[in-house]
Write a structure and sequence with these properties.
The complex is a heterodimer of chains A (105) and B (486).
Chain A lengths: L6 H6 L4 E7 L4 H17 L4 E7 L17 E6 L4 E4 L5 H7 L7
Parallel strand pairs in A: 1-2
Antiparallel strand pairs in A: 1-3, 3-4
Chain B lengths: L2 H9 L3 E2 L6 H4 L4 E2 L3 E6 L5 H15 L4 E5 L4 H9 L5 H6 L3 E5 L7 E3 L6 H14 L3 E5 L3 H5 L3 H18 L2 E7 L17 E10 L2 E11 L8 E7 L2 E4 L15 E2 L4 H6 L5 E2 L3 E6 L5 H14 L4 E5 L4 H9 L6 H6 L2 E5 L7 H15 L3 E5 L10 H17 L3 E7 L7 H7 L4 E10 L2 E11 L9 E6 L2 E6 L6 H4 L3
Parallel strand pairs in B: 3-8, 3-9, 4-5, 4-7, 7-8, 15-19, 15-20, 16-17, 16-18, 18-19
Antiparallel strand pairs in B: 1-2, 9-10, 10-11, 11-12, 13-14, 20-21, 21-22, 22-23
Classes of the chains: A alpha+beta (105), B alpha/beta (486).
Chain lengths: 105, 486
């Protein structure tokens, strides 16, 4: 069901971390999540990531594709396997574990 | 809630019919329209089916499109599971009358980091509802979320918001939930769904399994409070209230001979009414089965089809016994005109009997159905249950204009007691008695009632001879002096 989207893009770019952040409008939680994500990526994945923010209020049809229930949800599309992190990403440690950038303690 | 809505509620609670046979009768028209209904039950009790039927019937019969949010099975699996019931979900999806949204959540895939809500779920559901203009929604089973999302606090608050949101959307929703230990549902969802709660149950008593349905609560409406047995048949769920089919079947005026000329004469010269229900009651050995066999024999000779349910004797045994009174049923069986179905009543529960009979009758399309004897059912169910089932059978047979003949075993001293419950359902009731007369046993026969026709009030003698059944005048004036014992 969940295919990784256009392959061409990942090959073309150096960025091999494909991240998608699902939000529903510009809520405080969404803004916090985006800010947290940006910060973590800059620190740990500088230059090799791509963040796509999907606002489900504008594109509700995209919610089922990635099986989104919770908002905000961060989906790591690449590298595979797919991982999902829900919440405003305020717990950096857990985000790193969730992204598989750090071993679970 | 808007004031307008509140006003409406005071006037009359609008209902959303389920289209499930029997269900709308016991709820006075269906589930509350525009409100959520909780359907709770343990595994395998038919919750999902209930939800699907609510949507499918809504889409097909009431022009109300539906959204099925499945948390346990995907669209493919669901479609397969209900295909055997004749529901073509794919076709409904194609016609934009149904959307199945499969919500898959893998605990292992998800990491929780801080604050979140379930807005994604709301958006998905809202999008699906708006896409086809859905009026009905089913959530099956939302509790799966409890195992997927560790934060119970958020989940509870969000579910509560979801149910309120459904109400605001004005959709009639069915939310299924797992039965709890000592509570209606495992996670206490009944606290949030206050309008209508239905409990499904699958229970085994004395090795017999029965499905039951109970309306625990239905705010603002009068509803049946009983436990109603229900069936899952080839056509889906069917609840069994007494009055489910009602009394609006056609009454054919055609007649069908009884197979015995004298008995025809007693019944206004023409026999039973076609499509009527006939009861033969009598003590042991009075010839109930013989009378039934004569009827069946004559019908098959005319080329009609008969279905004979025997609950006591095997096919072989019936054929052998009837041969002794000059009725040979075996060629009729070979021709396929007469079909026997032999089952001990205790083989399975009442509901299963009803299902089997339904299915066989639908398959064979008989003109005549015999149940021999119905009294054996009292071994598997209470009086009221048996009556309910017989009512259903009779209604079903009448609706299909099938003539039904029931035999009933009665005790010697209280000849009519065990059949009193069902006698009101019967059109023609023939009583068979053993009469002791001049030191001799005689079989006597009389018509206790026969609706809508002139009939004999005489007690007639009834003899089983090698050449068949003979009905004659009762020999009352015998050689009294010679045989009168001292």
């Amino acid at each position: 069901m969940e295919k990784s989207k256009p392959r061409a893009r990942t090959r073309r770019a150096e960025k091999n971390w494909e991240l998608r952040l699902y939000v529903a409008g510009q809520t405080p939680k969404s803004l916090t999540a985006f800010a947290n994500l940006k910060k973590i990526c800059e620190e740990h994945l500088a230059g090799q990531y791509h963040i796509e923010v999907i606002d489900l209020l504008k594109k509700p049809q995209l919610a089922s594709g990635d099986q989104i229930l919770a908002i905000p949800t961060l989906v790591r599309k690449l590298p595979e396997p797919i991982r999902k992190i829900i919440g405003d990403l305020s717990d950096t440690e857990r985000v790193l574990v969730g992204l598989n950038l750090r071993e679970q303690k | 809630m808007t004031p307008a809505k509140q006003n409406k509620q005071v006037k009359l609670l609008p209902k959303s019919p389920t289209g499930i046979p029997g269900m709308d009768e016991i709820t006075g028209g269906g589930l509350p329209k525009g409100r959520p209904t909780l359907v709770a039950g343990s595994a395998g009790c038919g919750k999902t089916l209930f939800a699907i039927e609510f949507l499918v019937n809504g889409a097909i019969q009431y022009n109300e499109p539906g959204v099925f949010m499945a948390f346990e099975e995907n669209a493919e699996e669901l479609a397969q599971n209900v295909a055997s019931l004749g529901f073509d979900l794919k076709e409904l999806i194609k016609q934009k009358k149904l959307i199945i949204d499969y919500v898959r959540i893998e605990r292992a895939e998800i990491q929780e980091t801080g604050e979140y809500d379930l807005e994604g779920l709301f958006i998905r559901l809202g999008h699906a509802i708006d896409t086809i203009g859905a009026k009905r929604v089913a959530l099956d089973t939302v509790e799966v979320l409890f195992s997927a999302l560790p934060n119970r606090g958020i989940l509870r608050a969000e579910l509560q918001r979801l149910f309120r949101w459904l109400k605001d959307k004005g959709v009639s929703a069915v939310i299924t939930a797992e039965r709890g230990d000592g509570t209606v549902t495992r996670f206490g969802l009944e606290e949030y769904v206050a309008d209508c709660v239905i409990l499904l149950d699958h229970r085994v008593t004395e090795q017999m399994s029965t499905r039951r349905l109970r309306i625990v609560k239905y705010r603002g409406t009068v509803h049946g409070t009983n436990e109603y047995p229900f069936l899952i048949t080839k056509d889906g769920i069917s609840v069994l209230p007494i009055t489910s089919i009602g009394l609006n079947h056609k009454a054919p005026a055609g007649r069908v001979p009884t197979g015995i000329k004298e008995l025809d004469d007693m019944l206004g010269g023409k026999g039973y009414y076609r499509g009527s229900s006939i009861l033969l009651s009598g003590t042991a050995g009075t010839g109930k089965s013989s009378l039934a066999a004569a009827f069946v024999d004559a019908a098959c000779q005319r080329g009609e089809r008969c279905l004979y349910f025997s609950f006591e004797e095997s096919t072989e045994q019936i054929i052998r016994n009837m041969r002794s009174i000059g009725i040979d049923l075996s060629p009729l069986v070979k021709k396929g005109l007469l079909q026997f179905h032999v089952a001990r009543p205790t083989l399975y529960g009442l509901e299963m009997h009803l299902v089997t009979m339904h299915e066989l009758i639908k398959q064979n399309k008989p003109d005549i159905v015999v149940l021999d004897p119905i009294t054996d059912f009292f071994a598997v169910g209470s009086h009221a249950e048996v009556k309910a089932v017989l009512t259903r059978i009779i209604d079903f047979l009448k609706a299909n204009q099938i003539t039904a003949l029931f035999s009933s075993y009665t005790e010697e001293d209280t000849p009519n007691e065990s059949v009193v419950g069902v006698s009101s359902l019967i059109d023609t009731w023939i009583s068979l008695r053993n009469l002791e007369n001049h030191g001799e046993r005689q079989r006597g026969l009389f018509i206790l009632k026969s609706r809508g026709m002139a009939h004999s009030n005489q007690i007639r003698s009834f003899e089983l001879t090698n050449d068949g059944i003979k009905i004659g005048a009762l020999d009352l004036a015998g050689p009294r002096t010679a045989l009168n014992p001292a």
